[in-house]
Amino acid sequence: MNDTTAKLDPEKQPALVRVDMYQEWRKREGAPLVGGVYIKDMKAVEVGPWPSKGDGVKGALCYLDGDDEGDEHIVELSPGGSTAPLRHMYTEAIYVVSGHGSTSVWRDKGAKQTFEWGPGSYFVLPTNAWHQFFNASLSRSARWFSVTDLPGLLRQWASEDFIFNNPYDFTDRYRGEPDHFSAEAKLYRGRVWETNFIPDIKKLPLYEWKSRGGGGTNAFMVMGAGMMESHVSRFESGHYKKGHRHGPGAHLYITEGEGFVLTQRGNEPRIRCDWQEGSLYLSGAGEGQWLHQHFNVGATPATYLVLNQGLSRKYAVNRWQANLSTVLRSGEVSGKKGGYQTEYEDEDPEIHRIFEEELRKRGITCRMKKMVPWCTGEPGAEAAKATFLDEHGLVE
């Protein structure tokens, strides 16, 4: 600093411009950009050329109103096509929407291993391992989408080269084990499966989940060597789940059924998203804490897959989480007992009125009599009990 610069008036200088590294990268990728509150049908999203994914590969980059540290990548591979070999530092959880094919994975040192996938397959790629996708059909395209933590990493490191051209080999997460994608899943207390590859998410064993209501069954999955968590929940016709509150980071993909979600931040107006098989929505539509509930108004059970980033039962994300239960989550504990769940008797009665009205339009009977005091329908699933057993003992 010399005398001239020392005498400058700071109020007459230009303001510093803040750069969003993710948004800058997103614009340069050249793929179609998708936004909004939610996506009604992931199978119908228009795709276009995505040069960095490979010659002839199409896709779309989705960044919804509730997205912050995560985003969604839709990729469509033409018949007989393949993607370019890629590796990256971000975690990528992949769900196959349609088509059949295979993926090869390898490290700089070590042999390639290849696994096959089809509609409903769900898997997490090893961190920073090379990978390449192949469409097995010569007549039909294949489409999948992924939820990633790329936005958060780009903003944290402010370096695309670090994310996409990093030679570090995470051997503690992936050593090229021949059974990495075929090993038997391990089941833990709390309905938690640990695995890296699920051939068909619709065939995943589910277990009763009374605490969340709705006549539901559920299973959690710890995937990607423990770096992320997902879960599948299924609930019956004429039922809805209890409301619960958290940030907008949970991505819900509907694998079967028809219904809607109501999500609300504070005292703001409720946002409603009507969903069907193939819909993707988030637990909120902006920053902050959102109260949201899932409603089944179809004639058949409804099932959704939740793709999370930044959560894991295997590794703590902060000092406070380190001491929390890995069996009982605060999202299924009543707000009256320190959790984030709203019990049926504590919810706004307008919620149930909206639900019954939607059922009547479809000629379907509400079956929440045993759960909601003001229900005018019939008995259905039993109400949850007030006690749970976690790994630390009895929680009331």
Short structural summary:
With about 400 residues, this protein is mainly β. The chain contains 5 helices and 27 strands. Strands 2, 12, 13, 15, 16, 17, 19, 22 and 24 form a 9-stranded mixed beta sheet that branches. Strands 1, 3, 4, 5, 6, 9, 11 and 14 form an 8-stranded mixed beta sheet that branches. A 5-stranded antiparallel beta sheet has the order 21-20-23-18-25, with no helix packed on it.
Describe the structure.
The structure is a single chain. The protein has 396 residues and is mainly beta. It has 2 domains: 21-164, Sandwich (Jelly Rolls), CATH 2.60.120; 186-319 and 333-395, Jelly Rolls, CATH 2.60.120. The protein contains 5 helices and 27 strands. The protein has helices at residues 3-6, 21-29, 150-157, 160-164, 349-362, and strands at 33-34, 38-39, 48-49, 58-62, 71-77, 92-98, 101-106, 113-117, 122-124, 130-135, 142-148, 186-188, 192-194, 197-198, 207-208, 217-223, 228-235, 243-246, 251-256, 259-264, 271-275, 280-282, 290-296, 302-307, 341-342, 388-390, 393-395. The strands form 5 sheets. Strands 2, 12, 13, 15, 16, 17, 19, 22 and 24 form a 9-stranded mixed β-sheet that branches. A hairpin with a 4-residue loop joins strand 16 and strand 17 (228-235). The chain is globular and about 75 Å long. The termini are far apart. The model is unreliable at 386-396 (pLDDT under 50).
